[in-house]
Amino acid sequence: MAGPVDDEPPGGDPFADMDPRHLAVLRAQAHVWRRLADGMRRPWATVGLLVVIGLAHLLAGLVGFSEGRVTFAGIIVGDRPTSTLVFMGAMYSPKVSAGEIWRLVSCLFLHGDGTHILLNGIALYGLGRLCESVYGPMRFVWLFLVAGMAGSTLSFVGGNVASVGASGSIFGLMGACIVFGYRYRLVLPPHIGELFRKKLLPWVGLNLMIGVLIPFIDNLGHLGGLIGGAGFALVVSNRIVPAEPNRLGARVAMAVVSALLLLCTAVGLLMTWIERAQQ
Questions:
Q1: Is 111 designated active site?
Q2: How far apart, in whole angstroms, are the C-alpha atoms of residue 187 and residue 26?
Q3: In the annotation, is 222 catalytic?
């Protein structure tokens, strides 16, 4: 005897009886996850920044080696003399006060030794991939520069004589991620939202505490970068939340301003080198 026959054919829509509002949230979360995962597979801007930072570190090592202040092995891992870092564009308050404002940008790409660049490079790669997938390459570079300049500016205003490193920018990336997680907590998938909102907070606190305990760490630069990155995330749109405006004009404007800022920094640094060579 044949069994009972269902009125509905198999393979129907499993979401047919779902609350439309809940369904809309699930679809938005799926969209966020796809865009986030896609962006993290191709972090071209993050890789580009790491290449520039690595080349600047290598060039500083070669300058120190040519002056007899760094050994051959030290070209990569050795300490950079302060005079070499100032020559390469470190934030040096007497020169910033004299008008070399571009040092607030160039110092972001310099590091004091091999350990410094290694730790910052690892952090920048991890956080950079995350932020670049959220904001896209143009806004991500602008975030890196804005947070970094906020950090170096606060370091300068706070009385630090010299400062180098991408740490301010890295704190800015953490600040941007945390603010993004809270700003879009209703749209982000739960595990992704937890990562943005809560997983990074202990790292921020731990690193700020380390900066308090270790005198030579530029905690003002870290704090300034954190504030700059958080402020950025409060006002700038992103590329992964479906309802968020993602205007091409705004992205192009940020790319142009970033390029001009980096160009002015390069010109200022080059003019300084030329003046030194003529002395």
A1: no
A2: 9
A3: yes
Catalytic residue among 167, 191, 237, 258: 167
Q: Which candidate in 106, 111, 222, 258 is catalytic?
A: 222
Q: Three-class SS of residue 140?
A: helix
| Cα 16 → chain centroid | 43
Which has the minimum average pLDDT: 8-12, 223-227, 266-270?
8-12
CB count, 10 Å around CB of 9? 6
Mean pLDDT of 73-89: 93
Can you spell out the DSSP letters for 35-86?
A: HHHHHHH--HHHHHHHHHHHHHHHHHHHHHHHTTSS-TTHHHHSPPPHHHHH
| CA-angle at 138, arms to 134 and 208, nearest 5° | 60
Contacts of 101 (CB under 8 A, 6+ apart): none
CA distances from 249 to 175, 234, 243, 252, 275 (A): 25, 19, 17, 5, 39
- What pLDDT is attached to residue 1? 45
Helix, strand counts (H, E) of the chain: 12, 2
